[in-house]
Amino acid sequence: MAFLIFCHAMYLNTQLMKSLNFKYMTPIFCLLVVSLIFCNAPAEEDQGAKSITLAEGYEFAYRLDDPDQTFKMPKKLEEISGLGISEDGEILVAVQDEDGKLFFLNRYNGEVLQEIEFWKDGDYEGVEMVGSTAYVVKSSGTIYEVKNPGTPGQEVEKHNFFLDEDNDVEGLAYDRAHNRLLLACKAKAGHEKDYKRRKGIYGFDLATKTLGEAPVYFVRLDSINSYLEKDPAIRKLEKVVEFFDPDEDFDFSPSAIAIHPRTGNIYVASSVGKLLLVLSPAGQIMHIEKLSKKIHPQPEGLCFDADGNLYVSNEGKGDHGLIYRFNYKPGRVD
């Protein structure tokens, strides 16, 4: 469109030059060109930094404002709250935060293939597949172990620990390297006074079926701010800096967690503030990504396939729930 307007302007200028003195037409032509440039400039709100890389040499390999594929969920998954993937990587597994049901989805088009009831209604927030067993976590911290879901041999075992509604567990991830599940607390990190201004991630040992007494990872406000203070250029990401103001409450609230299959890095999303943090396997913050509210109205689930492609689920907030696929593009150039 801009090219057509430019050509039209050139034509008008040529016609006018035939009838008027050239020296008066040059300023008019320049004005037209400048107008075109500004009319087609990106909107100010789309400009500026949207991410912070804190680890030297790290490259964030996703464009989270530009999904490679979008799956619109049926009404029953408007409040999709957790997302996992089958062992063979062919089936996405979802839960929503009202019904005690597992939803098995085609990972190529998002179609619901099977709907399986495993327990009564409740606030279910995360799901992971480990072999043929599905694990579902409730906001109270209760873990449901669903063996052979959808078969005559389906069995469900509950695991209750010291976490409760005050911790508000929302994230669940399978940590294959340590044979455990990671549980991310949206609210209080635990019951210790020392856990203030921190968010805790606990480990559930799959061999012993026990939950560690202390978090295996922390997301700490003081740690984040120590990173932010290292580079003056970070100040360009003003909204992120304001969100992690050391004089305010620590509002980062994990709503989803997943482990990258190739790097082992831990991805933690917060619907509050619309942020994604990438941690190293040792728990060091490597990257902070600001999510677009238009694309991610309420990010509640994360998972990866074996190729490193990232799937993010968003609650519908009155509309359809959505699942996005973002292709893994290491070494990409923006």
Helix count equals 4
Structural class: alpha+beta
- Gyration radius, in Å: 24 Å
Largest sheet: 5 strands, antiparallel
What is the CATH topology of the largest domain?
Answer: Lipocalin
CATH A-level architecture of the largest domain: Beta Barrel
Overall pLDDT score = 83
Strand content: 35-45%
The shape is globular
Give unreliable regions as ranges: 1-49
Distance between the terminal alpha carbons, to the nearest Å?
24 Å
Count of domain modules: 2
Overall strand count: 22
Main β-sheet, spatial strand arrangement: 1-19-18-17-16
Estimate percent helicity.
10-25%
CATH class of the largest domain: Mainly Beta
The run of helices and strands is HHEEEEEEEEEEEEEEEHHEEEEEEE
Explain the overall architecture.
The protein has about 325 residues and is of the alpha+beta class. It has four helices and 22 strands. A five-stranded antiparallel beta sheet has the order 1-19-18-17-16, with helices on one face. Strands 11, 12, 13, 14 and 15 form a five-stranded antiparallel beta sheet that branches. A four-stranded antiparallel beta sheet has the order 2-22-21-20, with no helix packed on it. Residues about 1-50 have low confidence and may be disordered.
